[in-house]
Amino acid sequence: MSTSFDVIIIGAGPAGYPAAIRAAQLGMKTAIIDNFVGKDGKNSLGGTCLNVGCIPSKALLDSSKYFEHIGGHYKSHGIQTSEPTIDVPTMIERKDSIVKKLTSGVAILMKANGITVFAGTGELDADCKVTVTPLDGSEQQHLNADHVILASGSVPIQIPGIPYDNETILDNAGALDVNAVPESLGVIGAGVIGLELGSVWRRLGAEVTVLEALPEFLATADTDIARAAQREFKKQGLDIKMGARVNKAELQGGRVVVEYEQSGETHQIVVDKLLVAVGRRAQTAGLLAEGCGVTLTDRGQIEVDDECRTSVKNVWAIGDVVRGPMLAHKGTEEGIAVAERIAGKKAHLNLDLVPWVIYTEPEIAWTGKTEQELKDAGIPYRSGSFPFAAAGRALASGDTAGLVKVLAHAETDRLLGVHICGANASELIAEAVVAMEFHGSAEDLARIVHAHPTMSEAVHEAALAVDKRAIHRVN
Ligand code: FAD
Ligand code: NAD
User: Which residues form the domain of 389?
Assistant: First the structure.
């Protein structure tokens, strides 16, 4: 097997594997090294996203959504069914088969593009040399390349003194593999994972308590959107306790005693399972040999410039291991851009417009600035919003929760932020990203013809509302 390459990529998640494909498309001799071990004990490409992140969580979100709809929402449509039951092992098997299909698909793509795959841990030495320690215990291999791309991703943050066993105290991987609905589930952190996976198990019948240290719900989202979402989650029975910082959790008699501080007092809950979802940190353990020269930030991320160059010539870093949002699509676009830069092409990626999506019901999605950010920066703006309850299609489908909010510059009308809480927000946000990438104005969105009846009409009406001329609500 060859040991000399144009490009070596360490990490085959959604940042690394698209970078490998693009590099191969551009004619470079490419290798990728990955050490993720799947449920079958073998290397499974696709990283956190395909194995224990985006895809499996969405599979369970969809299964649990159908379960909840049959049990509740369908009745108002006149659909009568007997009380549904959930066969959790079948749901998990379905999720696993989707993961298998996609991760095997990545392996097929590697082969089809002539990319050499090493199943093992890659360590960067000086001068773009890489040592591979194979997962099968065979001898180390020494590779070299003109360029190395580091794409080692991230791992869950642990709270000191609360170790996961992934049976009772779970991280994201454990929470995707529970084999029966727990009667009670505690969740530490009302962030993206806490809300998505908390929703899965609540829909299936668990009593879910979410403990969030911050006083403000979804502090990174626009306040109006966060409030609308919080109201809906409360109605659904998700018990979210704000300003509740967890410091301690202990196994006692097969259950977990969780201790948290709220308003200066210590409280306790006892739950059957506990999900710890308090953020993720860059994964650099075993990646950088001493003397390789790559520097880290004080947050432990690999230091890069705007174009993903590290402190070492011809060594690049992309995805969760560097600054910016820890999102699959952000890493993918960075990977493609870096491959193009290596090939001498110009590449463009606007981190300011990376869309965020939270796949709860209702979904939450946004791009650009929030109203709080505009206020803090002293940027003059106008705001328009439109509730889904006033949109015909939303009423027809029973998806009336939430709203669209459009923020535009007060003088130039340029779009500054679009925020959505509602069904299909994950798809609707794409229109806003396109409009904003093309430096569009609220007027542009307002003048574009939107099909009737669709949920996208709420985006149109919110853009009209910026100029106080929404049609289906009083301005
Ligand atoms: P990773 O996906 O973490 O991949 C890194 C790979 O590198 C892994 O396979 C790892 O084993 C391997 N590796 C690490 N070190 C080495 C080494 N030294 N040698 C060899 N291999 C190594 N994002 C979204 O955009 N949408 C979502 O819906 C979404 N849902 C999520 C749900 C959950 C439960 C979680 C946990 C995350 C979710 N994310 C989502 C975040 C998303 O998964 C990450 O942003 C994304 O996977 C980061 O991609 P990456 O390629 O940088 O790293
Ligand atoms: P997060 O940063 O979204 O949320 C963590 C929350 O935990 C924060 O609100 C924080 O205040 C709280 N917290 C921290 N310590 C605490 C303590 N001791 N007690 C109580 N609360 C505490 O992190 P996450 O939910 O773990 O997700 C990690 C990352 O994975 C996300 O930031 C996102 O980048 C990615 N992700 C994305 C998606 C998506 O795009 N739909 C889904 C899941 C994960």
Answer: 362-466
